[in-house]
């Protein structure tokens, strides 16, 4: 603890619960109260349905089981990252790389018949950032799978009879970890595909580590031009070297796509992904001839991938996935810290980033928006960090903190932190340490206000929510935002 009189606390602005934007706004209301307003502008006017991932729509129409694609269509990120990379100087990338040589890969797990590939990949990516300091780290995918779908909020929006068969994705894993529902050591809730036991309820908010950042990557060829996915591959390689293993998803069920002799996969035609795995390296010179005869890519080069089907499959549980595989879709990199970094975590809904919204019709004006949350301090504490999502590559942010605010008015009271600025090169979830921590008194109402400025993507506000299998948007996804708007 930096101050023995104050607990270190984290504030999460995980959804745009109070909004001001470049369009006129005359009424703002928090999700936790405030007088109703008239003259609301339907949020649907500012929500572009093209943001929905086609793979997600098909997944819902097919029953919503197995690997769940992200609801977001992240194809725009490849172009954003291409711009970002062209503006920055990166180190030369080696022709081949293998994180196993550095001891940064967990042993190969066996998921058996459980649909937890997504949670295995996410926890293994997260563990990979810790293995250099804590070589025995192994994190529990069962804890993530169970508590992502069990609980009052979780069951309302993500209910399933069997959380281990329902599937999931990186967005779900990030949201769960960001709420400090894990990650925990695998030994506390072990994976046992033959006789899986459910975690005890007292483990729900136990976390051995805290998620600090999660970077959403532009991996894959879907929707993208050749030059764009080559840039995407370079970004992925950079993250592998900077952070550790990363997750991706691909289609594992095609005919003549897997060469058992060489443990090499290649889908020559687009397929929606059905399996999440862990990328641990690459080889630019991996021979194209190693893929199945009659189904080979045009060029050499492949990702080194750790699977979750046990060591008897593939090359001791590993395989090669062609750079040109047409089914690859976006993945994530995770960064963790030990759980003693902060003592408290303020946030509201824990659904994570599900949608992105613009509050102006003009594309340039829509790239800038403001969001806020109002909280009440639970004790004498010191606010030392703020977490939030960004929707674009290279988003600039400005953070302000107010104390003594009035209900529904986040910029009232006393401004304690005046406009801390920064830039996040990667889209995703971020934790920013405050330059000047803010002391809070028990019962004091305080706010965190963030201004987003996106370089390219004209929907800077990340919202949380879920859709059911009939593709009905749950009401409370938009409720707080619509209440905040009067134009």
Describe this structure as you would to a colleague:
The chain is an alpha+beta fold and 487 residues long. It has 2 domains: 7-48 and 358-483, Sandwich (Jelly Rolls); 54-334, Cysteine proteinases (Cathepsin B, Chain A), CATH 3.90.70.10. It contains 9 helices and 20 strands. It has helices at 54-61, 76-87, 117-128, 141-147, 152-158, 170-178, 226-242, 363-366, 476-483; strands at 7-13, 18-21, 96-98, 209-216, 246-250, 258-259, 264-265, 275-283, 302-306, 318-322, 332-338, 344-346, 355-357, 368-376, 381-390, 395-403, 414-424, 428-440, 445-453, 461-463. The protein is globular and about 70 Å long.
Comma- or semicolon-separated keywords:
single chain, 487 residues, alpha+beta, Jelly Rolls, Cathepsin B, Chain A, 2 domains, seven-stranded mixed β-sheet, six-stranded mixed β-sheet, Papain family cysteine protease, protease, signal, hydrolase, cysteine-type peptidase activity
Short description:
The chain is of the alpha+beta class. 17% of the residues lie in helices and 26% in strands. This is Papain family cysteine protease.
Spell out the blueprint of helices and strands.
Elements: E1 7-13, E2 18-21, H1 54-61, H2 76-87, E3 96-98, H3 117-128, H4 141-147, H5 152-158, H6 170-178, E4 209-216, H7 226-242, E5 246-250, E6 258-259, E7 264-265, E8 275-283, E9 302-306, E10 318-322, E11 332-338, E12 344-346, E13 355-357, H8 363-366, E14 368-376, E15 381-390, E16 395-403, E17 414-424, E18 428-440, E19 445-453, E20 461-463, H9 476-483
Parallel strand pairs: 1-12, 1-15, 7-10
Antiparallel strand pairs: 2-14, 3-8, 4-11, 4-18, 5-8, 6-7, 8-9, 9-10, 13-20, 14-19, 15-18, 16-17, 16-19
Helix pairs in contact: 2-7, 3-4
């Amino acid at each position: 603890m930096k101050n023995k009189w104050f607990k270190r606390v984290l504030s999460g602005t995980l959804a745009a619960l109070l909004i001001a934007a470049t369009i006129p706004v005359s009424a703002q209301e928090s999700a936790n109260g405030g007088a109703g307003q008239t003259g609301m502008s339907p949020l649907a006017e500012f929500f572009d349905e093209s943001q929905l991932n086609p793979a997600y729509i098909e997944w819902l129409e097919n029953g919503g089981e197995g690997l769940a694609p992200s609801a977001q269509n992240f194809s725009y990120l490849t172009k954003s990252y291409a711009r970002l990379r062209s503006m920055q100087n990166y180190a030369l990338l080696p022709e081949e790389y293998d994180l196993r040589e550095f001891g940064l890969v967990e042993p190969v797990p066996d998921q058996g018949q459980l649909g937890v590939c997504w949670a295995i990949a996410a926890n293994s990516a997260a563990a990979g950032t810790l293995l250099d300091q804590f070589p025995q780290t192994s994190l529990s995918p069962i804890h993530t799978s169970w508590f992502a779908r069990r609980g009052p909020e979780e069951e309302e929006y993500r209910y399933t009879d069997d959380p281990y068969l329902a599937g999931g994705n990186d967005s779900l894993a990030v949201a769960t970890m960001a709420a400090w529902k894990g990650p925990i050591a695998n030994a506390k809730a072990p994976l046992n595909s033959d006789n899986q036991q459910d975690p005890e309820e007292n483990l729900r908010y136990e976390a051995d580590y805290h998620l600090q950042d999660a970077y959403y990557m532009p991996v894959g060829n879907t929707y993208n031009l050749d030059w764009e996915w080559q840039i995407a591959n370079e970004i992925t390689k950079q993250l592998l070297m900077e952070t550790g293993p990363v997750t991706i998803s691909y289609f594992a069920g095609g005919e003549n796509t897997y060469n058992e002799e060489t443990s090499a996969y290649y889908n020559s035609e687009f397929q929606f992904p059905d399996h999440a795995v862990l990328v641990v390296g690459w080889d630019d010179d991996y021979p194209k001839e190693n893929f199945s005869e009659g189904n080979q890519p045009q060029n050499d080069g492949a990702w080194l991938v750790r699977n979750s089907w046990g060591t008897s499959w593939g090359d001791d549980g590993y395989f090669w996935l062609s750079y040109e595989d047409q089914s690859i879709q976006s993945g994530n990199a995770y960064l963790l810290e030990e759980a003693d970094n902060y003592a408290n975590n303020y946030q509201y809904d824990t659904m994570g980033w599900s949608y992105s919204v613009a509050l102006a019709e003009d594309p340039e004006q829509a790239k800038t928006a403001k969001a806020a949350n109002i909280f009440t301090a639970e004790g004498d504490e010191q606010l030392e960090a703020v977490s939030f999502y960004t929707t674009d590559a290279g988003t600039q942010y400005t953070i302000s903190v107010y104390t003594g605010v009035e209900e529904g008015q986040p910029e009232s009271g006393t401004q304690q932190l005046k406009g801390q600025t920064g830039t996040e090169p990667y889209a995703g979830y971020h934790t920013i340490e405050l330059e000047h921590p803010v002391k809070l008194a028990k019962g004091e109402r305080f706010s965190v206000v963030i201004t987003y400025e996106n370089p390219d993507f004209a929907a800077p506000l990340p919202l949380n929510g879920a859709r059911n299998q009939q593709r009905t948007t749950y009401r409370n996804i938009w409720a707080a935002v619509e209440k905040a708007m009067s134009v």
